[in-house]
């Protein structure tokens, strides 16, 4: 992965460097050509100045015989020729010409033969008109440059100076320029590559650590963690998120193992009892006259096993992603009354009192009635189980704005402080040692899941004695209280 990223980065750097080098090369090339053309034009102006002085000193004659100015013009022309290999011509309005034709021809006859008379005549026309030229022309098949300036005396153009040279002379020295540009580009690539290598390596190190940790986690090692200290804030944030994910996955795995262990234990207990009793009756260990007694125990364990499996299936269905609610509007008070009626036999056996503190008007809520009935039944069953004979259960409903609060309270043994945080955990029973066989420890987990599906809450209230659970429901949208009354009614049921 590191090598692939480095290759991609270096490819990008190389492309950018080549592009910038090309632009830089073209810019420097044009600047150098312009600079050399300016120098050549400057030389032409100096020759023109000398020609103007010479014309003045010889009473209008361009080339006074043996004058110092004429000799200096020739010397200057030789200097320009030696530097640029140029063909130089000085001409006045009378058509008199001074040039270095023979010198140039002796050195480069092809260049002289390629000179274009039409180009020279066109340039002379411009210069004799008082203008200057600096242009690129074609001599044969080769490019060349031409500059021309007039020489003036008393404001009158007396003649012209033309200089022509091959393009490679003006563009000469580009090899050195290319070497310099390539050297600078190579240094830039080397420095960039080094810096990128160091940076990418520093970035890839935590990413490699994250990759190894992810692979270890995929193999089931949920205790792996990564270092959250990184130069990049993004990498540090990613590492923190990874560790958080690892913590949550570890908790999920721990809960899964605990769940499997609890299910195995809860299933093994009734199955072992049933198997033991049946085997005892088959081999005669249990005498025939006691068979009814043990058959009743087998029936109890079978019902316990059936309830456990039913609760597991219910919880599994509730936790499915496609689990949906069938919302409707119903009277919460009426649902509580029906739940009490269905448990009247259990209440009578324990001679328990039930007090209902309801609103005077119907307590209309919006929820899945079947699911909420399951919550009510679970809470009521727990209250009956953990309240001693002759105890009291209180059911309360109240409205606050758009929320209905339903409370199921009893005056039973209560829940120890150290157990309060775990009452909604799966398979947890607050008093397992004293209530063996009374429950599966899944009822409150099912209640909590149902309330979560509704977007509501269920909590264990703080009470001085006994136990009280309160859950919330959404008030029905069309619910109206006649006359705005908020009085409560109390109903007593004594069994």
Whole-number count of domains: 3
How much of the sequence is in beta strands? Answer: 15-25%
Helix content: 40-55%
First-last Cα distance: 76 Å
- Using the coordinates above, name the CATH class of the largest domain: Alpha Beta
Total number of β-strand segments? Answer: 13
CATH 2nd-level architecture of the largest domain = 2-Layer Sandwich
Topology:
Blueprint (H helix, E strand, L loop, with lengths): L1 H56 L10 H17 L2 E6 L4 E3 L1 H7 L1 H5 L3 H12 L4 E7 L2 E12 L2 E11 H4 L3 H45 L14 H50 L8 H28 L9 E4 H11 L1 H6 L3 E7 L4 E4 L1 H17 L6 E9 L2 E8 L32 H11 L4 E3 L6 E9 L12 E7 L1
Parallel strand pairs: 7-9
Antiparallel strand pairs: 1-2, 1-5, 3-4, 4-5, 6-8, 7-13, 8-12, 9-10, 10-12, 11-12
Q: Would you kindly provide a brief summary of this structure?
A:
This protein has 495 residues and is α+β, with helices and mostly antiparallel strands. It has helices at 2-57, 68-84, 101-107, 109-113, 117-128, 167-170, 174-218, 233-282, 291-318, 332-342, 344-349, 369-385, 443-453, and strands at 87-92, 97-99, 133-139, 142-153, 156-166, 328-331, 353-359, 364-367, 392-400, 403-410, 458-460, 467-475, 488-494. A hairpin with a 2-residue loop joins strand 9 (392-400) and strand 10.
Note down, in words, how this protein is organized:
It is rod-shaped, with a radius of gyration of 53 Å. Helix 9 (291-318) packs parallel to helix 13 (443-453). Helices cover 54% and strands 18% of the residues. The strands form two sheets. Strands 6, 7, 8, 9, 10, 11, 12 and 13 form an eight-stranded mixed sheet that branches. Strands 2-1-5-4-3 form a five-stranded antiparallel sheet, sandwiched between helices. Residues 58-64, 432-437 and 481-486 have low confidence and may be disordered. The protein has 13 helices and 13 strands.
């Amino acid at each position: 992965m590191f090598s692939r990223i480095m290759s991609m980065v270096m490819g990008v750097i190389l492309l950018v460097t080549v592009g910038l080098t090309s632009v830089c090369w073209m810019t420097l090339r044009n600047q150098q050509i312009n600079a050399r053309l300016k120098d050549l034009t400057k030389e032409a102006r100096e020759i023109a100045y000398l020609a103007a002085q010479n014309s003045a000193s010889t009473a209008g004659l361009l080339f006074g015989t043996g004058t110092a100015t004429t000799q200096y013009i020739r010397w200057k022309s030789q200097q320009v020729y030696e530097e640029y290999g140029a063909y130089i011509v000085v001409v006045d309005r009378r058509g008199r010409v001074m040039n270095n034709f023979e010198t140039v021809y002796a050195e480069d006859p092809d260049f002289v033969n390629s000179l274009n008379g039409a180009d020279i005549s066109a340039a002379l026309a411009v210069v004799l008109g008082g203008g200057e030229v600096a242009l690129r022309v074609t001599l044969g098949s080769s490019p060349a440059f031409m500059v021309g300036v007039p020489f003036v005396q008393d404001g009158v153009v007396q003649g012209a100076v033309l200089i022509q040279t091959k393009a490679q002379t003006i563009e000469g020295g580009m090899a050195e320029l290319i070497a310099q540009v390539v050297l600078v580009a190579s240094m830039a690539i080397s420095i960039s590559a080094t810096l990128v290598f160091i940076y990418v390596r520093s970035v890839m190190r935590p990413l490699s650590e994250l990759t190894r940790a992810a692979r270890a986690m995929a193999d089931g090692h949920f205790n792996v963690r990564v270092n959250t200290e990184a130069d990049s804030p993004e990498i540090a944030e990613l590492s923190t998120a990874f560790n958080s994910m690892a913590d949550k996955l570890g908790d999920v795995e721990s809960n899964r193992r605990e769940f499997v262990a609890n299910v195995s234990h809860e299933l093994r207990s009734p199955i072992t009892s049933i198997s033991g009793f049946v085997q005892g009756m088959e081999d005669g260990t249990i005498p025939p006259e006691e068979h009814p007694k043990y058959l009743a125990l087998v029936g109890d364990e079978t019902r316990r096993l059936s309830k456990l499996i039913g609760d597991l299936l219910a919880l599994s269905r509730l936790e499915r992603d496609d689990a949906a609610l069938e919302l409707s509007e119903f009277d919460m008070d009426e649902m509580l009354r029906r739940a009490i009626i269905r448990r009247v036999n259990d209440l009578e056996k324990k001679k328990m009192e039930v007090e209902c503190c309801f609103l005077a008007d119907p307590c209309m809520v919006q929820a899945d009635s079947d699911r909420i009935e399951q919550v009510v039944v679970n809470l009521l069953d727990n209250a009956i189980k953990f309240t001693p004979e002759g105890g009291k259960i209180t059911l309360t409903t109240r409205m606050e704005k758009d929320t209905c609060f339903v409370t199921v309270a009893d005056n039973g043994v209560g829940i120890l402080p150290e157990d309060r945080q775990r009452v909604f955990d799966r398979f947890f029973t607050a008093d397992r040692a004293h209530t063996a066989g009374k429950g599966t420890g899944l009822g409150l987990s099912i209640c909590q899941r149902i309330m979560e599906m509704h977007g509501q809450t269920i909590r264990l209230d703080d009470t001085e004695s006994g136990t009280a659970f309160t859950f919330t429901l959404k008030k029905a949208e069309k619910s109206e209280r006649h006359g705005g009354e908020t009085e409560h009614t109390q109903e007593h049921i004594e069994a």
